[in-house]
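Render this sequence as a predicted structure.
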Amino acid sequence: MSNILLGASASVSVYKACDLASKLTQAGHAVRAVLTRRAASLVSPQLFEAVTGQRAFVDEFDAQRQGAMDHIELAKWAHLFVIAPASADLIGRLSHGLADDLVTTAALALPGDVPRLLAPAMNPHMLTHPAVRRNLDRLVSDGWRTIEPEIGHTACGDEGRGRLAEPSKIAERVVAVLALDSEGRK
């Protein structure tokens, strides 16, 4: 099938990224997870490795790195890059072209024709903050597609739009984008 690079940032909903990785793998895709350091403090990279059968990446400069430039190799490998969950922090860094971790450097190294998806997850007030809206708008104008967060109870106890979309919904969107991309390349 396809090579899917799954980025995960620090959000309580990062546990859903493991389910997403599992669903995509069970559908026949090769999935490699790239976690921010803070995401890796919430969910072990080994969990992603267990459900995908692929190495999970956190730090380009750790002792287990594969090559001199993991971000380039991961970007070349990917047929699609999806970030779920995408925190306000990661969205801000991506929208400004910052590359201070493996997720953001891989994002910047992606070839222009590789589809990019963001699934934001955060407190409803954060999601509606003008700075976050500006950052999301900038990413959309840069070619990122978004998967809208769902309305409901969030981890902080607030109600509203901000919950990470369900993994099955994200997986469906990934498959749809891959199908559109393959049609466009014919």
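Summary. DSSP finds nine helices and seven strands in the chain. The mean pLDDT is 94.
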